[in-house]
Amino acid sequence: MGTLDEVVAGAVGGHRAPGAVAAVSRDGEVEVGAAHADPEALYQVGSVTKVMTATLVLQHVERGDIALDDPVADHLDDFRLDPPEATRQVTVRHLLTHTCGIDRADAFVDTGSDDGCLARFVAEVIAGAPLIHAPGEHWSYCNAGYVVLGRLVEVLDGRPWDDALAARIFDPLGLAAVTAARLDRTDSPLAGGHRYDPERGEVVPEPQVMPRSVGPAGNVVATAADLVRFAEALTDGRGRLLGPDLAAAMLEPDVPMRIGHQGLGWTVPLPGVGSHGGTTPGGTALLVAMPGRGAFAVVADGPGALAISAAVRAHLFGAPAQPLGSRREPGTGPELAPEACAGRYARYLVTRDVTCDASGTLTVTTTYQEPLAGLFREPEPTPLEPLGGGSWAGQHPYEDFPQLWDFSEPDGEGRPRLLSTGRLSVRVG
């Protein structure tokens, strides 16, 4: 089966990251495998950060500072939505489970690099935001919701989110991890970022980084070993970060997703398993926690961590090489005519134009607005393959797995109102 080093080496390169590191933790022992990468370097782990932010919030729940079903507005004076009566409908639980409905899914807006950036994000970016659905009605991934949670931690803790995270998670566990805003506090090397350029057909350096103001949603840099040590400390039942009952509650299947469920911070692809991926302009990562069995993580200096981690999982457990959620499986909705799905769908900073040709083939053209357009390249027009049940799949030759496109809530003429690719968009034309 080869060594862990050999497994990682066989999975990198091509359209994937130039280098990657995998870490596996079992019974407190950590094994690390790397290919063309420094296992001691800090990598951008993106949205894996959300599990850490969720842990901080739940520490406050455990202390009695807040309750999961408290309206967020009870604790943040600047939190307000449009219409105003929606403001008190959004709870802490809604933010943790991506069911808040706030139309700011990828609001990667830079509100400064000082300690006041999260407060300004809530007051300037969230304030007045509309709802894309009623709170609790749908699951729709929302980065901005985790920025709000980070600001909630600041208000309750009295320190910037970056410092609360270090004091309450990194330092007690002896991790090398820091936030991107605190790189001056570490001597660890930092892995450079890369992205795949389809025009050149190769991976190229990517210097872009996420703004500090979205830190609680995705600005931790860490080693692969850091991630598995964090996961074990959270889920091994010893109560080092959270009491065992509340840590277990994070892995309860709270909200149905396309495949699996959303928990409190973690996604739950299988019962009792916690998972979270991360993508930044220059890096990808994945962390999986299996209470009682250990944890594994992959960090990469470019695209492809999900595929690399699938190879690691197959090496460890003989599991299928294609992860849950990436398979071409039909949806559960009504059958929809392709021509009825054609139209324009929109959410904050993103527009999807869906066209249908004479043969009934759907193609999606995606447009990003600034500042999202400055961080991520717009995908090429994407032809879709019908799966049934209101679902289609789209995949470019250089992508490891298909993206699933789910159309839902058809009107009397069979035209869907919603389009989901993990984030909901609403038909506007």
CATH fold-level assignment of the largest domain: Beta-lactamase
Number of helices: 12
Distance between the termini: 53 Å
Determine the structural class based on helices, strands and strand pairing. Answer: alpha+beta
Percentage of residues in DSSP E strands: 15-25%
Tell me the overall shape.
Answer: globular
Name of the level-1 CATH class of the largest domain: Alpha Beta
For the largest beta-sheet, the strand count, sense and barrel status come to: 9 strands, antiparallel
If classified by CATH, what would the architecture of the largest domain be? 3-Layer(aba) Sandwich
Could you tell me the number of beta strands? 24
Count of discrete structural domains? 2
Helical content stands at: 25-40%
Mean pLDDT: 96
Oligomer: single chain
Q: Which sequence of strands runs across the widest sheet?
A: 19-18-17-16-24-23-22-21-20
In CATH, the homologous superfamily of the largest domain goes by the name DD-peptidase/beta-lactamase superfamily
Unreliably modeled segments? none
Q: What is the alpha-carbon Rg in Å?
A: 21 Å
